[in-house]
């Protein structure tokens, strides 16, 4: 049994029982595998939960990378396509994610399960930002530009939360939210708005 | 690339945008009065131009239903000072496009395939902006196609947008809020229908089929299998929009032929189908040098209730109008005069309406009408201005005119204004309509 199968069995368990298995032991018993096999793949149940998110992220990215149109996109469009596809993939697991929300008030709390996904996303975002520098879509700013990737992470969390609470037909409001959020963020990091704001802030703090 | 870099997000942000306009318009008034203090001869033209520009900029940033309202306002040239209508007329052509990934996503979600999988060629850059969507060019085999794509969440924002637009509409149109309510309800219904692309597709196929026999009209073919609730695929029509077309100096014959086709199209729908393409803004017509005109966009269709139809068109009948009592009854049925009106008000309003009706229905009473007759339109505009400035009307808190008349009037206004720009000479006799009806 490989990681993916264990992951799928784990989410299935959640869907049927609405809760986490009591222990690795009971989980293995249901799966009909030995604990050794389990520990060869995962160190704990939490690790599966983390891998669930990372798995979706990696699948999304893998699919995008094979897409020719995606390759030709500028950074902003790449990020847009990422969110659109990501949300599509999340849809396949919506029930599981909604259970997480009910049980743990996710994603407000219990964000630990996003740890590995977050690291991978930050790498991806940094890559996009570098591309953005080259295409001059994004302006490099001392100290601040290092934080852009974190800004995008906050945005990804926003999209996730919006989608979790979205009741519109085919989640079309999420589509609109993504479009608007990404446009806004790129507008902020490319134009002079932010610079003027910083300049003003610096003036207020240091001047007199 | 000219993609819009930022779209106002939530309702709050939309509202701030409108507040921004309010402030700006306010400043324009201050500017105007200062200018006037310095030089009393300054007219209001500059003020109107400034206001229109600010309002237009705000509206075009909002896209969606606000833009639609701008379009509606721009139709009624008579109701708006010239500067407003010139500026608003621009909104009939282009609003900034949305991103490529969203277009792909819309295809994937509603048709299950990417544009690249469905078409041999798909132009990612929108060639045209419709007010609640945008149009892309595509090829399938050797067929050239036009694909209309709707922005996500449009229906959701229609209601809240209208609520925000209302104070501005009150300001621009000069009506009281009570007055506007029943009209806003009508507009809301129409707008919500317009966001329903499945309904539009159905109506497009139905109405263009029923009107196919009218000479010199061209309708695109539609492709239901390539359409969904957010996408409509149709044949790409060649031709030019009114303004560009007129720049090519078409001959009088060609202009007459196009004008006649448009006239016939509307008359046939109103009298035979009792359902009418109620969006006659120039962006929906493509004119060509051979005297034919392409028509699309059946998103806004007004179904005309029978009793409204009977009353409305009695106004054209000179015989009926001679009968004083009957005439008053018709006015009452059309809600032009109210039960609460005093005798004096009844006389006042019926005289006004009669004058207006005589003027507006003139083409219907003749065998042939020359829409190039500028004096006629100048008279209408002058009369509208006169009405607009009448103290009694401005201060009237009562809604006058049935809700149905809103879109029917708008349709005729729009048609008149196109025919007048075309300077077309058109056969307007009743027998022409009769012939079209019996030919169907």
Descriptive key words:
heterodimer; A: 208 residues; mainly alpha; 0% strand; elongated; B: 440 residues; alpha+beta; five-stranded antiparallel β-sheet; 20 helices; 12 strands; 10% strand; disordered N terminus
Characterise the protein shown here.
The complex is a heterodimer of chains A (208) and B (440). Chain A has 208 residues and is mainly alpha-helical. Helix content of chain A is 74%, strand content 0%. Chain A has eleven helices and no strands. Chain A has helices at residues 3-17, 24-31, 35-41, 45-65, 68-72, 75-91, 94-104, 115-134, 148-164, 172-190, 193-206. Chain A is elongated. With 440 residues, chain B is an alpha+beta fold. Helix content of chain B is 59%, strand content 10%. Chain B has helices spanning 11-38, 45-62, 65-75, 82-90, 100-111, 115-118, 154-174, 177-194, 197-210, 242-247, 252-273, 306-314, 318-322, 324-333, 343-360, 362-365, 374-389, 391-395, 403-422, 430-439; strands at residues 121-122, 128-130, 133-140, 143-150, 217-218, 231-235, 275-277, 285-287, 293-295, 301-303, 368-370, 425-427. In chain B, strands 1, 2, 3, 4 and 6 form a five-stranded antiparallel β-sheet that branches. In chain B, α2 runs antiparallel to α3 and α7 (154-174) runs antiparallel to α8 (177-194). Mean pLDDT of chain B is 76; it is low at 1-9, 13-23, 58-68 and 73-96. Chain A binds chain B through residues 69, 73, 76-77, 80-81, 84, 88, 168, 170, 172-173, 175-184, 186-187, and chain B through 4-7, 9, 98-102, 104-106, 108-110, 114, 116, 151-153, 156, 230.
